[in-house]
Amino acid sequence: GAVVSQHPSRVICKSGTSVKIECRSLDFQATTMFWYRQFPKQSLMLMATSNEGSKATYEQGVEKDKFLINHASLTLSTLTVTSAHPEDSSFYICSARDGGQGDPYEQYFGPGTRLTVT
Amino acid sequence: QQQVKQSPQSLIVQKGGISIINCAYENTAFDYFPWYQQFPGKGPALLIAIRPDVSEKKEGRFTISFNKSAKQFSLHIMDSQPGDSATYFCAASLRYNTDKLIFGTGTRLQVFP
User: Fold this and answer.
1) Is the Cβ pair A57, B106 closer than 8 Å?
2) Cis peptide before B8 (omega within 30 of 0)
3) In the structure, what pLDDT confidence band is assigned to residue B44 with cuts at 50, 70 and 90?
4) Where does residue A86 rank: exposed (0-12), middle (13-18), buried (19+ CB within 10 A)?
5) Is B101 an interface residue toward A (CB < 8 Å)?
6) What is the rounded CA–CA span in Å between residue A113 and residue A9?
7) Using 50, 70 and 90 to split pLDDT, how confident is the model at B57?
8) How far apart are CA B38 and CA B41, in angstroms?
9) Which residues of A touch B41 (CB under 8 A)?
10) Distance from CA of B27 to the nearest CA of A (A)
11) Is B82 helix (H, G, I), strand (E, B) or coil?
């Protein structure tokens, strides 16, 4: 149980275009989802926290107009990187917290999406 | 005050040996301390977690030791195996602050046969 999927697993896009990454909780309802970015050989950096049906809370230094987050349902959150540039190339990982019977502390992580902007 | 400091940055252990990774924190309000294992190109997976009312927790070959007064916690991997070779992250969380996880910098573990 407690599986989180991401789609796509890797994407290559041209500079200036937008790309959408989906994060789904497959067997639980995720009241809260988190989006992280990880550069090679570095730790996970939290970008934003989203609660179903409300606006995402962005961490300091993360441009909310560039990284659009939508958490429209209890099983789906999307991250759209708008006008992507090569410096946005990174590994994007989502996580979700089970709002039902699961451990209220635990976050379940997706497999990540490798974004390469050329 | 929100940082979690992790050491060492990298660790090489022989098969069958004990791997020890340490983390330290400042914020005494943290109330959840998980450890994650991450393989290259994959998302992190929860290994084991502890809350501050417990000084030790063991699950199979993995043990967390927690020292509340020193504000430190560590991961011990007993009988380390080549399959344990991965990057390990400690983290800490503030339950009331939307459960945001603060990650350590990571430790790359290599276990040689």
Assistant:
1) no
2) yes
3) very high
4) exposed
5) yes
6) 4
7) very high
8) 8
9) 91, 112, 114
10) 17
11) helix
